[in-house]
Amino acid sequence: MSETRNRASHRAMLAVVALAATALAAPLLAGQKLGEVQGTRTPDEIYAKTCGYCHGRNVGPIILGRALPADTVKHIVRHGQNGMPAFRPTEVTPAELDALAMWVEKSAARKQEHGY
After folding, report:
1. Which of 49, 61, 39, 115 is nearest to 87 (CA)?
2. Closest CA to 99 of 68, 74, 63
3. Same domain assignment for residues 28 and 50
4. CATH number of the structural domain spanning residue 91
5. Domain count along the chain
6. Hey, is 81 helix, strand or coil?
7. pLDDT 10s digits, 67-86
8. According to the model, what pLDDT value does residue 111 have?
9. Is pLDDT above 60 for 29?
10. Which pairs count as long-range contacts for 99-102, CB under 8 Å and 24+ apart, including other chains?
11. Do 75 and 107 sit in the same domain of this protein?
12. Are 86 and 80 in contact (CB under 8 A)?
């Protein structure tokens, strides 16, 4: 019975080690050093790659040119709303979100986003 328990304990330990190794390897696989934050993207880059996918194609509401308050943008980005998912700090850093929210607040409408 103790040999069976030892094997089960050993397998459980290996599973924990494998899980930890996978979690620690993820940043390295992304070309990032452990504990290092990836380079800061510009608001335009974030919008183009993340927000514009829905908001620029009339899937989600148009957000540019509406003078949406930066605090509102930040809250919705972090917490989600209706069909929009929440974005974690690992997806959009706090510094990137601050810059993006101000950029959205001050942005001009884009003609192509309104289906013209």
Report:
1. 49
2. 74
3. no
4. 1.10.760.10
5. 2
6. strand
7. 999 999 999 999 999 999 99
8. 83
9. no
10. 99/40, 99/42, 99/43, 100/43, 100/46, 100/47, 100/51, 100/73, 101/70, 101/71, 101/73, 101/74, 101/77, 102/43, 102/70
11. yes
12. yes
Q: Which amino acid is at 114?
A: H
What is the DSSP annotation of 19-56?
HHHHHHHHHHHTT--TTPPPPPPPHHHHIIIIIHHHHT
**Residue 53 tokens, joined:** 């996918």
Residue 1 or residue 29, greater confidence: 1
Is 54 in contact with 60 (CB distance < 8 Å)? Answer: yes
pTM over 0.70: no
Write down the residue that tokens 């997806």 correspond to.
91
Q: Which residue has the tokens 């986003």?
A: 113
